[in-house]
Hints:
Blueprint: H1 6-15, E1 22-26, E2 33-37, H2 40-52, H3 59-72, E3 78-85, E4 88-95, H4 102-115, H5 120-127, H6 132-136, H7 146-153
Antiparallel strand pairs: 1-2, 3-4
Helix pairs in contact: 4-5
Amino acid sequence: RIGLRSIDLIEVIKEFELNSNKIRFFQTKTSSLQTLVIPEDVINMIRRLKELFSDGLSRDYINNNLREIGKIIGMNEIETSVKFYGSKRVIVKKRRWDLLTTHVGRRTFATKAMEKNVPIHIAMQFTGHKTLSSFQRYINPSSFNNKEILSQLWE
């Protein structure tokens, strides 16, 4: 729901006291100071994670649990993708739950933000992207409803 890099989310969970719905932190990758307004339900989730994981939390731990939750809720659809290893083309088939990671969450956040017409500069604030070209790589245009978008164009 907020599109942060996992390393930044873990930092927020470990280090920050949440007394309001705003957080200020230095993004790890870009070293830029960021102030974000966070929805109340996300603030509550972060507070709960602080209680549960006061000793520490890692990206691997989060990703493993995301996959486990995906299994439990039945995300069993097969996803097919193509990977290239040098010039060798390999078709990969995996269950949807096996693809769940914090990074997929960031990409989903970026795509959903664009689908909902969130201004690009706001979405980029949350994801931490500094350039439009790097942000655009996170957006999955195939998930957009082109028919609906085109119908809105002529309203």
